[in-house]
């Protein structure tokens, strides 16, 4: 039996003939990174390889001393007999699928990805392969995303309704990727500035430096203590909810932007006034379409509904199996917000 080209090992997903790891969860010599979310880009490795647009974000996440080497889209990178290349995943700025070719075999590790249009990052590229490693975050038929424009219009209308009532709108969303997407989409509807939690400020600046057009923002921490936020939209990570930071705002109303809001009970359990279905992950129809489009004869599933997706694919004649990883275990409270 042929040895898998990519397989779980003690420190992460290992490519044995190439001697490198993909998104390792422990420090390694050579780390090939799909994107800058903390469960995929962890500190301590000797050298990091990533798509060039991801480098500034990774530098902020991993520190100025981290050795991070950017590679152009589609540019070949050889690890001995294995050729690697990076291809857009459409998840966040610089997010990549990793194409791994050895002999006559081609595997693709997709990381996290989505197919929908997003003004903040490069669009997803279908990469034909023999074996496709896919996330399964929303691998159930109930997860079907509404048009992004309609959800962003709902966010804007909610903000304006609250402002008319003199209430602050605090929108919880993930600090890297989701916040910037909300700001980019809102820029088409308004020029009224929004406020940011401090955790979002350097990441948002990295997007601006990359040339992404975003709504004007101001840091909450830079505002005077007597600042009137009664008509403001404030973006914050979920970890800020219930913290003393929220005392800056009188009578705030809270919203949550995530794919998890497709299930109404999730909003009620979290105690938010409004939920907005906006995800940076692939939904069920696009997940199945992607698997089909790659032409893969074998599919390996990671984090989320991995086992459910395997059962579905096997019932429909595809070779499939779950792949054990630690993805989704590095963000604490913000894990689900990343969706």
CATH topology of the largest domain: Metallo-beta-lactamase, Chain A
> So, the CATH homologous superfamily of the largest domain?
Ribonuclease Z/Hydroxyacylglutathione hydrolase-like
What's the CATH architecture of the largest domain? 4-Layer Sandwich
Residue runs with pLDDT of under 50 for 5 or more positions? 329-337
Protein name: Ligase-associated DNA damage response exonuclease
Organism: Sediminicurvatus halobius
Keywords: Exonuclease, Hydrolase, Ligase, Nuclease
InterPro entries: MBL, RibonucZ/Hydroxyglut_hydro, Xnuc_lig_assoc
How would you portray this structure in words?
With 339 residues, the chain is α/β, with parallel strands linked by helices. It has two domains: 7-142 and 281-333, 4-Layer Sandwich (Metallo-beta-lactamase, Chain A), CATH 3.60.15; 148-276, Rossmann fold (3-Layer(aba) Sandwich). Helix content is 21%, strand content 24%. It contains seven helices and 19 strands. The longest helix is centred in the middle third of the chain and has 17 residues, at 148-164. It is globular and about 65 Å long. The two termini are 37 Å apart. Residues 329-337 have low confidence and may be disordered.
């Amino acid at each position: 039996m042929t040895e898998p080209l990519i397989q779980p090992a003690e420190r992460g997903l290992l490519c044995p003939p190439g001697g490198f790891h993909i998104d390792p969860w422990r420090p390694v010599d050579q780390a090939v990174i799909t994107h800058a979310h903390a469960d995929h880009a962890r500190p301590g490795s000797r050298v990091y390889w990533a798509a060039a647009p991801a480098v500034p974000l990774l530098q902020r996440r991993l520190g100025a001393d981290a050795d991070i080497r950017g590679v152009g889209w589609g540019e070949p990178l050889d690890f001995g007999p294995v050729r690697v290349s990076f291809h857009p995943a459409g998840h966040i700025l610089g997010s990549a699928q990793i194409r791994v070719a050895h002999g006559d075999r081609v595997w693709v590790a997709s990381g996290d990805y989505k197919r929908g249009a997003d003004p903040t990052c490069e669009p997803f590229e279908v990469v034909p392969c023999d074996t496709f490693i896919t996330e399964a975050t929303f691998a159930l038929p109930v997860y079907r995303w509404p048009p992004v424009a309609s959800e962003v219009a709902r966010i804007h209308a909610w903000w304006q309704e609250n402002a008319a009532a003199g209430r602050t709108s605090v929108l919880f969303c993930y600090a890297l990727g989701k916040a910037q997407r909300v700001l980019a989409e809102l820029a088409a509807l308004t020029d009224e500035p929004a406020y940011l939690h401090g955790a979002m400020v350097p990441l948002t600046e990295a997007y601006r430096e990359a040339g992404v057009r975003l709504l004007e923002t101001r840091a909450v921490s830079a505002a005077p203590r007597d600042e009137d936020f009664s008509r403001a939209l404030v973006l914050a990570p979920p970890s800020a909810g219930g913290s003393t930071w929220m005392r800056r705002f009188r009578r705030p109303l809270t919203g949550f932007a995530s794919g998890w809001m497709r299930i109404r009970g999730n909003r009620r359990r979290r105690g938010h006034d409004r939920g907005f279905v906006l995800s940076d992950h692939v939904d069920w129809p696009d997940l199945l379409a992607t698997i089909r489009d790659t032409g893969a004869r074998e599919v390996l599933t990671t984090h989320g509904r991995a086992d459910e997706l395997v059962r579905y694919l096997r019932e429909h004649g595809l070779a499939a199996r779950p792949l054990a990883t630690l993805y989704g275990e590095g963000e604490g409270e913000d894990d689900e917000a990343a969706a």
